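Long-time lurker, finally posting.

We've been working with Two-component response regulator (Halalkalibacter hemicellulosilyticusJCM 9152) and I want a structural starting point before designing mutants. I don't trust myself to interpret raw outputs, so I'm hoping someone here can both generate the C-alpha cells and explain anything notable. Sequence follows.
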Amino acid sequence: MTYMSLYNSALIQSDFYPTIVFYYYKQWHSYEMDNHSHPQVEIMYVISGECEIGFEQKRIRMKKGQFILIDSNVKHRLIVRNDQYCRMLNVEFMFSQNSVSIPSVSDLATDDEHLMSFLKCARDFNVLEDSSEVYLILKSLILELDKKEKQNQLMVGLYLCQLLIKIAQLDQEAKQFQSKWNHPYVKKAIHYIHHHYDCSIKVKDIADSVHLHPSYLHRIFKEYTGISIMDYLLSHRIDKAKDLLKRTDIPITEIADYVGMSSGQYFSTLFKKNVGVSPLQFRNETKQVRNHSSIIS
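Top reply, 14 upvotes:
Generated this for you. Predicted structure of Two-component response regulator:
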C-alpha cells in the first residue's frame, strides 16, 4: 500500500485503488484530542451532536449531517466542548496498486468529470453537507468490512469507488451553490430544500426554516432564481430521481418515496412531463448507453 495525498497527480496518471486502513464509530463527550497527523486520508462524519476540528490556523465547527475530508499528513485535532457530545463515524484510507477487480481512481476520474476536477483541486481539508447519501454509503461500507470475509473485498472496493464519486459530486454542487445564489435567504431556503427534499414539505415549512413570511420568501426566491420555490423543489427531486434511476436498481415505486413523493403514479406523471419519458424508459435508455459504452471500450 502507498501513502500519498488524495491530490497526488499519480492517482490520475497510474492505476491506484482506494483501500480502507481503519474505521470506527465513536461517541465523544467533553473531549479534546491531541494535535496529530497520519499518512492516511480521513473522513470524519458527524452522525449527531456537534464538534470542532482544529487545524494550525483555523477551527471548523461541524454539526449533524456534515463531514470533513482531511488529506494525508495534515495536522488536526477533534474538540468536543464541555457538556456537549458528538457521535462520529470515521474512515481512513490509502491507496494500493493491488486490484480487487474494481476500477482504479484513474479510471473513475476519466469517466467522471466531477471527480477529475475534484482530484486536481488540492486542499488540506474539505467540509461538505450530506443529504444522507454519503452516510448510507459509509454504513454499507462498514457492514461489508465487519464481515471480515475475503469475498467481501469486492463490495468494499465498489463502495469506496461510489464514495469518491459522491463526494466529488457534492463538492461540485457546493461550488455551484456558492457561486449562483447571492441572496442569504435564498441560499438558506435552497439549503433546506437540498436536505429535506425526501420529505413532504411546503412553502411554509421552507419559510419557517429561514424565519420569513411565505409570500415574502416566495417573491425574493423567484426574483433571484427566476422560478418559484415549488418549481425548484420539483426540479431538484427530478434530478435526484434521475440519479437514482441511472446509478441504482431501486424499484421505481420506491424511488418516488426516496424523493419525497408518496404516490408512485404521481411521480411517474411528473417525471414524464419534465423529462419527456417515463422513469422506466429513462432507466432502460441509460442502461443501453452504459452497455454500449462498455462494449466500445
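Before you design anything, note these points.
Residues 10-178 form a domain with the Jelly Rolls fold (CATH 2.60.120.280).
The chain has two domains: 10-178, 181-292.
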